Amino acid sequence: LLLQWNLVCEDDWKAPLTTSLFFVGVLVGSFISGQLSDRFGRKNILFSTMAVQTGFSFLQIFSTSWEMFTVLFLIVGMGQISNYVVAFILGTEILGKSVRIIFSTLGVCIFFAIGYMLLPLFAYFIRDWRMLLLALTVPGLFCIPLWWIIPESPRWLISQGRYKEAEVIIRKAAKINGVPAPAMLFETTEMQDLKPQQQQKAILLDLFRTRNIATITIMSLLLWFFTSVGYFGLSLSTPNWHGDAYVNCFLSAVIEVPAYVIAWLLLRSFPRRYSLSGTLFLGGGVVLFIQLVPADLHILSVGLVMLGKFGITAAFSMLYVYNVELYPTLVRNMAVGATSTASRLGSIVAPYFVYLGAYERFLPYILMGSLTVLIGILTLFLPESYGIALPESFEQMLKVK
């Protein structure tokens, strides 16, 4: 790809720009997906954005120029993050508390890691970029039958006053699980109490409607931004490690599996704030130590980078669960979309952190390590949601410390 469109020498700036523009698309998708799914439903937006990702990835195969490829790549980024965020919210709202944590960590994240591991394997055996893109696009078609399997979120339907549709889904789930459902799921008084909330349409400014909510939102935005810088900075730096680039990329993906398992175990048994802060301290602290390793100890340096990636990845996976638990149903998807937008800003900046390594080898690690440790301290001031039911209204939101 680099040679075909001559992305070398004086045009070598185009390669990292392509990556950054993909993340710009991811940023836009993060921003709009939450608002769209809060308005039109989780399921509709999930499958619409999956179609966008698969369709435009296929069109990329026929790109005739770098400009065409990059524009299509930006649109693919919009669809990719949108269906990821909406699928996460949909699963979170459908599943019960115990299963929700497994889904949010081991479910979503492990499958992400498996896809991550398959990427360098595909790239190793398929060296032609068009055929590689085709191989990565075709699996998207297998998601079509899921339309008839995945239901809409009952929580979202209830928040919209569509009780009959929600009741059908809940009764079907009860039947599948062998649990007897009560004769009346929604009492008239409960339905009346929810009417004011249904009539209220959420907007982005609702994330800043009170001082407490605004403080939580701003701290969450910073947390997502700097965690993303650390995660993508370490992920994108793999070609700069010593050894084979394909092997390094594979190892970078493999280390995510135990990170997700640890994140799941921490979420099951320990407070959210301490779990997040601890993993951020681990990731940031280890990355800071890399500068102290002698230049000839390459394996130790790679090992420390992997350990840092382990800590930051574990924190990243817990952010989704924590964020969902902080906000009420009315703006939950919007909140995840907004914080995910901050995360994408971090991913746009991350390639330039890596680029600083061309001037000073350890500078990217010093910056990423320092910022990760600082954000670990900030996390301790957020409210604790461990063992508390998901809030349904703004009044039920926890107070910041």
Please describe the topology of this protein.
Layout: H1 14-40, H2 42-60, H3 66-94, H4 97-125, H5 129-137, H6 154-159, H7 163-177, H8 188-199, H9 211-236, H10 245-254, H11 256-269, H12 272-289, H13 298-326, H14 329-355, H15 363-379
Report on the architecture of this protein.
It is a single chain. The chain has 15 helices and no strands. It has 401 residues and is mainly alpha-helical. α9 runs antiparallel to α13 (298-326) and α9 packs parallel to α14 (329-355). It has two domains: 1-150, Up-down Bundle (Growth Hormone, Chain: A), CATH 1.20.1250; 200-400, Up-down Bundle (Growth Hormone, Chain: A), CATH 1.20.1250.20. It has helices at residues 14-40, 42-60, 66-94, 97-125, 129-137, 154-159, 163-177, 188-199, 211-236, 245-254, 256-269, 272-289, 298-326, 329-355, 363-379.
Which structural traits does this protein have?
globular; nucleotide-binding; about 400 residues; Solute carrier family 22 member 4; single chain; ATP-binding; Growth Hormone, Chain: A; 15 helices; MFS_trans_sf; transmembrane helix; mainly alpha; about 70% helix
Shape, principal axes of CA atoms: globular
**Total of DSSP H or I helical runs spanning 4+ residues:** 15
How many individual β-strands?
0
CATH architecture of the largest domain: Up-down Bundle
Task: Estimate the strand proportion.
Answer: under 5%
Oligomeric description of these chains: single chain
Return the average pLDDT rounded to an integer: 81
Radius of gyration: 22 Å
